[in-house]
Design a protein that fits this description.
single chain; 129 residues; mainly alpha; two-stranded parallel ribbon; 4 helices; elongated
Length: 129
């Protein structure tokens, strides 16, 4: 309803530009993506234990070192991106939260892959020396 103080907007009036997310949002999402990718890659690498026959005895030191290298690379990339997102997002609380979640996820690949490792070992009766 028109009250006489202002004309209704015309479809030909210039529209305000769309609001762009801050640049820190992409970096914070990158930290989350790195953390999720590292966790998934570590868990899939631990699933190589499914190729062992049930009840086998093994000493898979190469697999442990690969899982450690995946966790190390994920931590380096995820923590760097998360800290950078925290530094450049001064007043954006959502970016702080996303960056913090990404940093936490980037620290967990070794632990999540060890959970999968132990589940597979318990299920198939594997013995590690």
């Amino acid at each position: 309803m028109y009250n006489g103080t202002r004309l209704p907007p015309s479809p030909h009036d210039p529209q305000p530009p769309p609001v762009k997310p801050p640049p820190s949002r992409g970096v914070a999402l990158l930290a989350c993506a790195v953390g999720v990718a590292g966790n998934i890659l570590g868990m899939l690498t631990a699933c190589t234990l499914l190729t062992y026959p049930p009840g086998a005895t093994s000493r898979p030191m190469g697999l442990v070192s690969i899982l450690f290298l995946i966790a190390l690379a994920t931590a380096m990339l995820g923590l760097t991106a998360g800290i950078f997102a925290l530094v450049i997002s001064r007043r954006h609380t959502a970016d702080w939260i996303i960056a913090a979640v990404g940093m936490i996820l980037s620290l967990t690949p070794f632990f999540s892959s060890m959970v999968v490792w132990r589940l597979i070992a318990a299920r198939r009766g594997l013995i590690f020396n």
